[in-house]
TrEMBL record:
Transmembrane segments: none annotated. This is GntR family transcriptional regulator. CDD domains: WHTH_GntR (cd07377). PANTHER family: GLUCONATE OPERON TRANSCRIPTIONAL REPRESSOR (PTHR43537:SF24), TRANSCRIPTIONAL REGULATOR, GNTR FAMILY (PTHR43537). The keyword Transcription applies. It comes from Streptomyces acidicola. SMART domains: FCD, HTH_GNTR. Residues 211-231 are annotated as: Disordered. Residues 2-69 form the HTH gntR-type domain. InterPro entries: GntR_C (IPR011711), TF_FadR/GntR_C (IPR008920), Tscrpt_reg_HTH_GntR (IPR000524), WH-like_DNA-bd_sf (IPR036388), WH_DNA-bd_sf (IPR036390). GO terms for molecular function: DNA binding; DNA-binding transcription factor activity. It comes from the Bacteria. Keywords: DNA-binding, Transcription, Transcription regulation.
């Protein structure tokens, strides 16, 4: 069975974000093909996509390598998200479907329940699903794709501290959904802007200020996981 290039791309991207491949390390087609059990063709296509997304760079005499973003580039990503998340919420207030609202309300109920119980283990995942669904509700594939890339890159470059007030955070999620349900674009934009600004304050660069790579944004190492390869 031929595994599509987008599934290989997802697997490589996930491993880059998880720190399996170090910043600046080479990504050879042969080794990647062997690692993921595919031919070199989908690997080559995946690397081109990842280069366009900014996870991979092509260097002379070295070929494809994991990118090494600067701290300024990492900071720019957070600023971009602070601009685009509120835009997505405002668009969602105009274009959401009943199916979107049903999913968003369900996620808010789960998040608020777990926040009240102090069960924070899966709050981050629920928050990610909430914002992904909110972006999809904007009715803009380009905006949804851009926000998804931002989330991947931010997860690669930043560690996120547990929110000091999870109950308040999920109350904000609920306020966003209420505004979206009413079709109140400005209210949705305002609450999302405040929520995103608060969430941004909890982000910390992974291993900043290393003596030998002071301008590099680095990440921790995690075990490889290719079980999430999607067909």
């Amino acid at each position: 069975m031929r595994i599509p290039a987008h599934s290989v791309c997802t697997a490589i991207r996930d491993d880059i974000v998880a720190g399996v491949y170090e910043r600046g390390s080479r990504l050879t087609e042969e080794l990647l093909a062997r690692r993921y059990g595919v031919s070199r063709v989908p690997v080559r296509e995946a690397l081109r996509t990842l280069e366009a997304e900014g996870f991979v760079v092509t260097r002379r005499h070295a070929g494809a390598c994991v990118a090494e973003p600067t701290e300024q580039e990492a900071s720019d990503l957070l600023e971009m998200r602070m601009l685009l998340e509120p835009l997505g919420a405002a668009r969602a207030a105009q274009r959401r479907t009943e199916a979107h609202l049903k999913v968003l309300r369900g996620l808010v109920r789960l998040g608020q329940e777990r926040a009240r119980r102090g069960n924070s283990d899966d709050l981050r995942s629920l928050g990610g699903w909430f914002h992904e669904t909110l972006a999809q509700a904007s009715g803009s594939p380009a905006l949804t794709s851009t926000l998804a890339q931002l989330r991947h890159k931010i997860a690669w470059m930043y560690a996120v501290e547990a929110p000091a007030g999870p109950v308040e955070s999920w109350a904000e999620h609920g306020g966003i959904v209420d505004a979206v349900a009413r079709g109140d674009s400005e209210r949705a934009r305002t609450i999302t802007a405040l929520h995103t600004e608060r969430a941004t304050a909890a982000h910390r660069l992974r291993f900043p200020g290393q003596a030998d790579r002071a301008e590099r944004v680095r990440t921790s190492q995690h075990p490889v996981n290719i079980t999430g390869l999607r067909h």
